[in-house]
């Protein structure tokens, strides 16, 4: 009997595991990943290392939550790991259950294992129902529950609702998330340079550094978008790390790099910023068409360039 061939890197997708995580739920939304090998990893760094080393063709990573905002580990990695592109975004509704080993009662819970993000999103419920509880951080939502059967001091865990399909745990409470409408946004990260064609319902992601720590530098950056009618759906600052007071900005904007207004804004950023990282243009997860004023139509930008070209070439005006 021969050993099975190892999975091919071009048919391998990495995700924050183990099975049953919200990240896996996001990867299930990728048609190209169906039937391929899914590689479970422990953290963002390992997922990106899989992609950059060629072990995986892509990795699914959480980048933003509607309650807590941007995921700093993902944002910082995208800023410092070269050669990565976002190929698509996916939304997953998020809620949690409190689980324990079979036979455990709620009043017996004194220590809770939970991923820091899950803990933050269920903290009000925990403090109201378990006011004296302690918290042990977990590397993932599923690992929080799995640790109950390992060398853990936790009595219960905050986990995804589908955890009962993977582990022999007992649900002590359902819907413990503080916000029933919470959604996490995931992105599929790859090394492929090809940009998905524009659909009219697109998003572009960037990381931009300011040239100097001086009054007006942030306003100058924002004007590159506002003067071209480009709406921002995300703007978050992250420390560059080389000294105090130096920040980079994570930017999501409505539109595609092939849109004239977006391309012109990127040219303005390139002229004014010491470092602009283009992370990709891709279809919006909600497929909502981008709205903007007609004065920012592609034809307006094209006509302006043609007008200037005519002046420089000496063409008679009005021809």
Automatic annotation (TrEMBL):
Organism: Agromyces tardus
GO molecular function: prephenate dehydratase activity
UniProt keyword annotations, A-Z: Amino-acid biosynthesis, Aromatic amino acid biosynthesis, Lyase, Phenylalanine biosynthesis
Gene Ontology CC, one term: cytoplasm
EC number: 4.2.1.51
Top enzyme category: lyase
Protein name, as recorded: Prephenate dehydratase
Catalytic reaction(s) noted: prephenate + H(+) = 3-phenylpyruvate + CO2 + H2O
GO terms of biological process kind: L-phenylalanine biosynthetic process
Cross-referenced CDD domains: ACT_CM-PDT, PBP2_Aa-PDT_like
SUPFAM superfamilies tied to this protein: ACT-like, Periplasmic binding protein-like II
Site (Essential for prephenate dehydratase activity): 184
């Amino acid at each position: 009997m021969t050993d099975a061939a190892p999975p091919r890197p071009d048919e391998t997708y990495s995700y924050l595991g183990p099975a049953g995580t919200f990240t896996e739920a996001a990867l299930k939304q990728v048609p190209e990943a169906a039937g391929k090998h899914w590689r479970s990893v422990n953290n963002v760094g390992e997922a990106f290392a899989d992609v950059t080393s060629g072990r995986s063709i892509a990795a699914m990573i959480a980048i933003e939550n509607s309650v807590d905002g941007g995921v700093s580990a993902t944002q910082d990695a995208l800023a410092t790991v070269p050669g990565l592109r976002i190929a698509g975004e996916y939304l997953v509704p998020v809620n949690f259950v409190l689980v324990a080993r079979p036979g455990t009662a709620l009043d017996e819970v004194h220590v809770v294992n939970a991923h820091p993000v899950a803990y933050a999103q269920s903290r009000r419920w925990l403090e109201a129902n378990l006011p004296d509880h302690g918290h042990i951080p977990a590397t993932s939502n599923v690992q929080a529950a799995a640790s109950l059967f390992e060398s853990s001091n936790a009595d219960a865990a905050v986990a995804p609702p589908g955890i009962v399909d993977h582990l022999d745990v007992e649900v002590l409470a359902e819907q413990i998330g503080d916000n029933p409408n919470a959604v996490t946004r995931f992105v599929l990260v790859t090394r492929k340079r090809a940009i998905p064609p524009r659909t009219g319902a697109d998003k572009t992601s960037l990381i931009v550094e300011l040239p100097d720590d001086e009054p007006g530098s942030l306003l100058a950056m924002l004007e590159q978008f506002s003067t071209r009618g480009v709406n921002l759906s995300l703007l978050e600052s992250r420390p560059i790390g080389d000294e105090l007071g130096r920040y980079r900005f994570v930017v999501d904007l409505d539109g595609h790099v092939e849109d004239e207004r977006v391309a012109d804004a990127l040219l303005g950023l390139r002229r004014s910023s010491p470092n602009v990282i283009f992370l990709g243009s891709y279809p919006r997860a909600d497929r909502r068409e981008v709205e903007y004023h007609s004065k920012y139509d592609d034809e307006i930008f094209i006509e302006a360039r043609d007008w200037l070209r005519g002046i420089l070439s000496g063409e008679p005006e009005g021809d």
